């Protein structure tokens, strides 16, 4: 007996934390440098660029692209298994369940547009990512809102994902600890969202 | 009698498993402590709609009338519950009744819940008994474990948890919270635990415990207050350990 479904589901669960969750945190930290202005942000990007291109490419393909695509495609399949019913059963956890799936669908589209635009066409086409480039993009209100919503959706999806991971792996068993973890993660969600809003708005300030 | 107090029902009906659903409204004479099953019995006695039109009696299932058998589970004002234990005084009117469409509808409010029986067979929801014992020779059971087993044994396969679960339905192959948690009951049994590995492996298959999405509606709607999510988390621990055994013991 191989129980393929079991291993794929568990792999899907781990992928959400490593590498995806860690990458999201790194993304927020690097982007938060924008609060310090163009020089600070460009310097943070410069630090990442110190990683040799060949090594970076291997990390990007095997550490990011493959796990991301796996999580996104299998996650889409999971999303299609649900008939969301928070209007009927309006419990907090059921709303979070539905939001996890709604954010998943939005992020599926968001991530494809984001990566194809900035990583493949812009950076892959030879234009380095810089504060000035993003500032220009965020001058368009549509892009600004699209990225802000995308970031907050990703943060919620990650934080709620940690909560459900603790249930799925049998780490948090009883309702007391499950509720505790859920509240802590929603607090983390709030804090990360505030940081994101701060660095996004800072583009308008400098 | 003209100004007698009545209870307003809006019932989703369906004549055959494949025909289109429609709604009919009924006024049932009020009496103290009236429950939904008793009101349906009144409609059965006098199948006349609110507008005075004669119709066929509404079909539903019930048996024990004391929240033990699970047969009268239906969607009442949007939520899955037992019709016999739902008092008219405690819910808002008009009272909307609908069949639990997670299951195939046979007629009106009557549904086919045999899928749960099939799921119980899948998870081996029984103990291979090889005889009975005198009290002093029976296998010893921890009374704390027995208390947990007693709680889970209250499950009457009514299907409330499956109806409320967003991951159970025609779009998914999830067997649902009730049959999944029953495997834990039999794993706790002093003799049933010998088949624990078989049950856990069944839960690791497609449609098993991995299909749980942690919406936790099951524990909210369970009419027997079984701590379903706690036992689901325990089973998640158990299948993880079983997975390690499967990898490293063979």
TrEMBL record, chain A:
The chain crosses the membrane at residues 55-80, 101-121, 141-172, 184-203. Pfam families: Sdh_cyt (PF01127). This is Succinate dehydrogenase / fumarate reductase cytochrome b subunit. Gene3D superfamilies: Fumarate reductase/succinate dehydrogenase, transmembrane subunit. GO terms for molecular function: metal ion binding. One of its GO terms (cellular component) is membrane. It is found in: Membrane. Keywords: Heme, Iron, Membrane, Metal-binding, Transmembrane, Transmembrane helix. Its main location: membrane. The keyword Transmembrane applies. InterPro entries: Cytochrome_b-558, SQR/QFR_C/D, SuccDH_FuR_B_TM-su. It comes from the Bacteria. The lineage of its organism: Bacteria, Bacillati, Bacillota, Negativicutes, Selenomonadales. The keyword Membrane applies.
From TrEMBL, chain B:
Residues 146-175 form the 4Fe-4S ferredoxin-type domain. The keyword Protein biosynthesis does not apply. InterPro entries: 2Fe-2S_ferredoxin-like_sf, 4Fe4S_Fe-S-bd, 4Fe4S_Fe_S_CS, Beta-grasp_dom_sf, Helical_ferredxn, SDH/FRD_Iron-Sulfur, Succ_DH/fum_Rdtase_Fe-S, Succ_DH/fum_Rdtase_N. GO terms for molecular function: 2 iron, 2 sulfur cluster binding; 3 iron, 4 sulfur cluster binding; 4 iron, 4 sulfur cluster binding; electron transfer activity; metal ion binding; succinate dehydrogenase (quinone) activity. PANTHER family: SUCCINATE DEHYDROGENASE [UBIQUINONE] IRON-SULFUR SUBUNIT, MITOCHONDRIAL, SUCCINATE DEHYDROGENASE IRON-SULFUR PROTEIN. The keyword Oxidoreductase applies. This is succinate dehydrogenase. Gene3D superfamilies: 3.10.20.30, Alpha-helical ferredoxin (1.10.1060.10).
């Amino acid at each position: 007996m191989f129980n393929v479904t079991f291993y794929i589901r568990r792999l899907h669960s781990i992928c959400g934390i490593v590498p995806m969750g860690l990458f999201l945190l790194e993304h927020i930290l690097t982007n938060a440098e924008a609060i310090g202005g163009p020089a600070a942000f460009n310097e943070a990007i410069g630090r990442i660029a110190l990683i040799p291109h060949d090594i970076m490419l291997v990390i990007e393909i095997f550490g990011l692209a493959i796990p991301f695509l796996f999580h996104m495609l299998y996650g889409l399949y999971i999303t299609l298994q649900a008939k969301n019913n928070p209007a009927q059963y309006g419990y907090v956890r059921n709303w979070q369940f539905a939001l996890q799936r709604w954010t998943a669908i939005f992020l599926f589209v968001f991530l494809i547009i984001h990566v194809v635009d900035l990583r493949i066409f812009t950076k892959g086409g030879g234009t380095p990512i810089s504060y000035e480039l993003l500032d220009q993009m965020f001058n368009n209100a549509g892009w600004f809102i699209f990225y802000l919503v995308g970031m907050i959706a990703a943060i919620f999806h990650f934080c709620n994902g940690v909560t459900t991971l603790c249930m799925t792996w049998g780490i948090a068993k009883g309702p007391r600890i499950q509720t505790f973890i859920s509240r802590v993660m929603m607090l983390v969600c709030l804090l990360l969202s505030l940081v994101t809003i701060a660095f996004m708005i800072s583009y308008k300030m400098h | 009698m003209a100004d007698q107090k009545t209870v307003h029902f809006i019932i989703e009906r369906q004549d055959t498993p494949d025909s289109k659903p429609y709604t009919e409204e009924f006024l049932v004479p009020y009496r103290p402590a009236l429950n939904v099953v008793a009101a349906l019995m009144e409609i059965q006695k006098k199948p006349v709609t609110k507008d005075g039109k004669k119709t066929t009696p509404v079909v539903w299932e019930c048996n024990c009338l004391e929240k033990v058998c699970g047969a009268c589970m239906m969607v009442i004002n949007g939520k899955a519950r037992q019709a016999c234990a739902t008092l008219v005084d405690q819910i808002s009117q008009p009272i909307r009744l609908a069949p639990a469409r997670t299951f195939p509808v046979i007629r009106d409010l009557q549904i086919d819940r045999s899928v749960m029986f099939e799921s119980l067979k899948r998870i081996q929801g029984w103990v291979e008994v090889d005889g009975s014992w005198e009290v002093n020779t029976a296998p010893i059971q921890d009374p704390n474990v027995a208390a947990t087993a007693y709680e889970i044994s209250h499950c009457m396969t009514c299907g409330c948890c499956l109806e409320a679960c967003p991951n159970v339905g025609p779009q998914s192959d999830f067997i649902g919270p009730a049959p999944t948690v029953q495997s834990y009951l039999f794993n706790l049994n002093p003799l049933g635990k010998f088949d624990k590995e078989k049950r856990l492996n069944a839960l690791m298959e497609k449609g098993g415990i991995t299909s749980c999405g942690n919406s936790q509606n099951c524990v909210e709607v369970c009419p027997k207050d079984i701590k379903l999510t706690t036992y689901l988390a325990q089973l998640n621990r158990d299948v993880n350990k079983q997975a390690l055994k499967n990898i490293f013991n063979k």
